[in-house]
User: Fold these one by one.
Assistant:
Number 1:
Amino acid sequence: MEKRCTDSQVKGVSTGTTILAATFDGGVVIGSDSRASIGGEYVSSKTINKVIQVHDRIFSCIAGSLADAQAVTKAAKFHLSFHSVQMETPPLVIAAASVLKELCYKNKDELQAGFITAGWDRKNGPQVYVVSLGGMLISQPVTIGGSGSTYIYGYVDAKYKPNMSKEECLQFATNALALAMGRDNVSGGVAHLVVVTESGVEHVVVPGDKLPKFHDE
Amino acid sequence: MALSNVFETPAPGFNFDNTSRNAALEGLFDGGQTPKPMKTGTTIAGVVFKDGVVLGADTRATSSEVVADKMCAKIHYIAPNIYCCGAGTAADTEKTTDILSSNLTIFSLNSGRNPRVVMAVSILQDMLYRYRGQIGANLILGGVDCTGNHLYTVGPYGSVNKVPYLSMGSGDLAALGILEDGFKHDMELEEAKELVRLAIHAGIMSDLGSGNNIDICVITRQGVDYIRPYQVSEYKDNRKTKYKYRPGTTPVLTEKVVRLKLEVVQESMQRMDTA
């Protein structure tokens, strides 16, 4: 195991990844790839789940060290569940994002994990928040993260439109993930997509060979 | 927050009491090469099949270039329905699985239930994450509970992954090749055992840190079949003489008995109320 930990900054298994979330008319689409690597050289898992459900209508995508991300989301799940029992109402998406932000900010020296929190709540409808490595929290209509995101900034800027339909948004997210996975060596596997609306949650898994192909493939 | 299964809450932070002891021990070697901790440079594998889980492991434990133990048991008991293979530092995997097993037994006694595999995984993840990779334990947990047949991997930094087949240790790449090629969903028992045996065998042949015999552990709803060894290495050597000596080999020349004088220093009595 140790021989594979090269000079990567992240210790242990990292999720060198592509994650994204986008709001559409009536909900959000959250997506990620499924590759986990050690030292950027060895794929330790082809089927890791990076879209984690922290509450009924709130999901969190993880990037960075897998151990740190899993530990933080575990703590966040507990806090949110406790919070919603106390308030006797489902938590707001901003609450979920804040819980993650507190954990990341207070422990910024030890942790190496970033998150995209997205979901739907009754008060503000569909929202997307990004919590970066140091604990910054901002709200955006569409956001991308992880090492693979650098390759799709142009695509996202050009192709995203607010208030798309669900199908358009799903296609946009699938294309974005496929483009990133095609260029980034530490992103790959299958594309996990989750659609969250007022009525419920829908999981879509696109296997690697069914991803959209572009001109050079 | 105390979990009902754990005997006492762990103290926050890390316990580095042993670093001063290690420094003192290193002083004894006067700058020479200190012995490396025993690692299990290992091949371990696990496969989920139709009726349960099959775990396999080699039996070699190495200390640098020397084989320290030829018949090391790498498949550890966690609960009647959960077993764990460990790769990495031998002491770490032993102790971690021991602690986990104790905690789960207490939980079983308190709650009257059999533990679930996810619970074992959760406890392990918490413990290993707290120690930030200092505990060098790469574990494969397999078990059967009321929710089904499960196989999980836990890394030394505390990352968890749920998988249908898996191998770990220094021989994992060789074993993984066999598993990737031969794995099918819902295999029969004999197929699964053969696949795991082949995977461990590949690890033993291609990796210097793995070797000797192959152990297999089959866990199903009906019970556990721990076959140790499942396959004995064909390279076993035959010692020409024995190291055991008959009683009487060393003659007794004289015998002297000294009675120890003990005196009662303090005596106290406490009445106990019995119903």
Note: The mean pLDDT of chain B is 87.
Number 2:
Amino acid sequence: MSGRVLVGVKRVIDYAVKIRVKPDNTGVVTDGVKHSMNPFCEIAVEEAVKLKEKKLIKEVVAVSCGPQQSQETIRTALAMGADRGIHVDVSGKDYENLGPLQVSKILAALAKQEDAQLILLGKQAIDDDCNQTGQMTAALLDWPQGTFASEVSLEGDKINLVREIDGGLEHIKINTPAVITADLRLNTPRYATLPNIMKAKKKKIVTVKPADLGVDVTSRLEVLKVEEPPQRQAGRV
Amino acid sequence: MAGLLKRALRLRTALRCLCDYNMLSRSTATLSPVDFHSPFLTCSSEQVLASTRKLHAGADGSKVSPSAAPERLPFCRVTEEDLAFFRKILAGRTIVDPDLVEPSNVDWLKSVRGSSEVLLRPQTTEEVSQILSYCNSRNLAVNPQGGNTGLVGGSVPVYDEIILSTSLMNKILNFDSISGVLTCQAGCVLENLSFYLEERDYIMPLDLGAKGSCQIGGNVATNAGGLRLLRYGSLHGTVLGLELVLADGQVLDCLSTLRKDNTGYDLKQLFIGSEGTLGVITAVSILCPRKPKSVNVVFLGCETFEQLLKTFQLCKSMLGEILSAFEFLDSECMRLLNTHLKLPNPISDCPFYIVIETSGSDPTHDAQKLHNFLEEAMTSSLVSDGTVATEEAKIKALWSLRERVTEALTHDGFTYKYDISLPVERIYQLVTDMRKHLGNRAKSVVGYGHVGDGNLHLNVTSPSKDPALLAAIEPFVYEWTASCRGSISAEHGLGLKKRNYIYYSKQSQAVALMGNIKAMLDPKGILNPYKTLPDNLKQ
């Protein structure tokens, strides 16, 4: 077992920012808007770093797909304790059309290339709320999946997982290698401390293109229109 | 009022003035308020008044604390005819239901309670003018009230003063996006103004923990300082104009939006910080800075206060023009935040914590400067631990550690608050000396505040109101402050609680002149009586 964990981190519009729809209704305004790491991805990074601190795994590799700015998101993961980063460079129109299917193909390719034992992802991204990448990645790799995890523990070459489901909590045991997606209550992400932030500046981030991994990022989906939900009407008493 | 004046107290130095209060207590027992009109207040009001007095009385009853309320001045009492008048001009906004008036009778700290029975809610300057004109002619006392977040008992009535609330005067009148000048009514909540401006790429020049409730009129009336003063300066500089209503109902329109106007005496400066005693502010025009494109918040831990001060110097030299806040809290504050609000410490336990905020127009430039500063601070061991936040959510979380200390203190017990300005290097000495001085008598003694402005918030808590503890704290804290030529109220104002301590920080001639100005602008003394100016001033 390589003891290597791949953690996917997505750069999204910061959850505290007020979202504006572009005047041409093709999407939301992203220029000049504050971006940060998807909160569920943060939880995934925290879990990976915790596993490393418990010496259950050996290396945490942070992966992000997107334009140049995605490197900042990887840096944040490095500051939290990840060892190195892989930036999959996707920009322009390709980035606008990038969705779970393409990302899962990229992650599957990277998992094989890096000989990963575990893939940790957030359960969903707060911008598209798709909740698909983890499941698709597991299917492409033919790996078991533990989604909506609120507790993870490694037992030899198996993983004990508690999943948050509609009916309550489900306890399952899956083989490794596996894909796990993190839910809210899995952990509380740490603040990156100064010494780690300083160290992160020296950690390596490698840039690759999807074509290098043999992945075609053309989208089979077309966004027709993006509009705001109807304005709330005043109530009447 | 007559009784107090008849005692010919000559103005002396600070300490001797306060000793004179022994004389006060012996003669106050015979005074009783005089009412000429048919009282609106029922007989139970006398009991309420008596208990109000007890709330402020000293431990053994023979020595009245200088922060206790004075005798009720002989204002008239509200009658049915008065209510009819108010109802005529403020239909539906004249409130007499005791349950609805009650929250406005008690301050945010729940430390002082008045016994007002009338709450008025005007919506326009014209209504305020009519109310004051009427009250002036009827000799009815008025207590202007904004968000009621003041910490010196200045925002609530002492007796039965009519509460004049600006809460419904919450319209934004104009915003000029080229000059950045915002004009609004006095009852606008600070946080709402911030939201409005942020959408237009500007921010308010002041920010404080109470932003969700405090109103801009009240902020101006108390010359509020806050977390951004270090960068944007005080309200004396950022307020460009005011619209006021004077005690006789006259509307004074000084609502200019000009950055520069040297035509005559700058009257608005007199009203900024006047705590509602010279006039009621009804509209404000304020100069707002652009919203910074890049905001970073750093939370650092230091081992000693000397290191903290050195970090401040390093900060000023390396971060310079992007520095927008420099606040500190001690380990006791962190303990209270952990215990009462369950807020975790983002870094390891240290004796002192610093919150630094940078605001600039270029994220890359600021990040570089910040990185250099942090590297220097760490390598020269000025700082033992820290964390940085660039994301909105994390920034809010780090700021809440400083902003919610006041809230945590209210859960710890009865709080004695002191807001002191001192030479920066001596700030923490007062906290250490106070701890030694009080020993086990106090539950917690904490120090935090705007160290960048030389402003310490010293707080002492006890399980319940403890007059003996109060006697140990005061006048020790004021004498200590006076010995460094500091200010006994850096930004909270004097209100009710600190009015008699003014002599610790101001010369008696200055205070006398303040009294003359008050007499000229409010001859009957109806605006926010018993506050701000000391009791021994002839009215």
Note: The mean pLDDT of chain A is 93.
